[in-house]
Amino acid sequence: MAEPGKIDPMYQFEVQPIAHLFDIAGLPVMLTNSAVWMLVTGLALWLFMLGGMKQQLVPGRWQVAVESLTGFISSMLTQNIGPEGRKYTPYVFSLFMFILFANLLGLLPLGLIGISPFTITSHLAFTGILALVSFSIVLVVGFWRHGLHFFSLFVPHGTPLPMIPVIAPIEFVSFMVRPFSLGLRLFVAMTAGHVLLKVLAGFVINASNAGVGYGLTVGLASFVLMVGISALEILVAGIQAYVFALLTSLYINDAENLH
Amino acid sequence: MDAEAAKMIGAGLAAVGAGLASLGVGNVFAKFLEGALRNPAAADGQQGRLFIGFAAAELLGLLAFVVAMILLFVV
Question: What is the 3-state secondary structure (H, E, C) of A176-236?
């Protein structure tokens, strides 16, 4: 797509093999930059939790940070699902923290020291799997607790009888679209933000190359905008992780309590 | 009009959808703030609903972005 001399904003999303691990049925299994960043995210999350789970009587700052996050998620679950929502805290908390760490690590300006950061949440393959896991939990919990009565989810309480043939297909479609919209939202929000940042970075570089006049007008304005957008992206990273966890808890609520 | 030009125009038109979704997202937060200033005591309990509304409005703008990206890089 990009001609030489142009800055390609899509290059940052390319999955590149780093090392050849082993073969499965003749197909090579590679260690990619995506896998490396997943491991880095997991490691960062593990270290963060390790530092805060000392359970001191008088908590330090780190412990307060971890405990306020766990408290935030468990209160969100009790608020949305009710008292039986607490048993989903481990899953929703891991989901929230992993997405949050993945989003934030992808935003780190590591290009300054020559490492190109890779945002794993900017790939549908990753977010789609997370969404499918959430959706499978909803299905398993729903059928486990309510059996075939779970299908009454498609007929909201109090629907007039003549309306059922209309409402039920609409509810069914809106239920089946959930994993797609859940995965797509996170993936597109992260992709769009990173493309925007790289396009603006391209403006800065090309304007600076074109001369001092362009560099001071177009380049500087783009750079200031980039700083602002970076701050916005940190906000979006948090909001998208929160929205993913929130919608997961709402869907689990449907499975637990029907509606 | 050749296919390449039509693709570019289509991707540009998809930006209209993204812009309209920005109106929607702004509306969600504006109405929330309006209500929250009238009854600040009830505002904190409704933040979950605020973000559900935000997510629903935002998704449609993101879909417009997906359409543009598909037109530019996939088709």
Answer: HHHHHHHHHHHHHHHHHHHHHHHHHHHHHHHHHHHCHHHHHHHHHHHHHHHHHHHHHHHHH
Q: Above 0.90 for ipTM, yes or no? A: no
Domain contains A19: yes
CATH of domain B3-74: 1.20.20.10
Rounded average pLDDT over A235-242: 93
> Which segments of A82-123 does DSSP mark as H helices, in order?
89-107
Average pLDDT of chain A?
A: 88
> Chain B within 8 Å of A75 (Cβ-Cβ)?
no
Nearest CA-CA distance, residue A206 and chain B, Å: 22
Report the amino acid identity of residue A133: V
CA closest to B68 among chain A residues: A192
Q: Residue A140 is part of which domain span? A: 11-257
Given its phi and psi angles, is residue A123 left (phi above 0), alpha (psi -120 to 50 degrees) or beta? beta
The single residue listed with the structure tokens 């059996």 is A147
Residues with Cβ within 8 Å of residue A18, at least 6 apart in sequence: A30, A31, A32, A33, A36
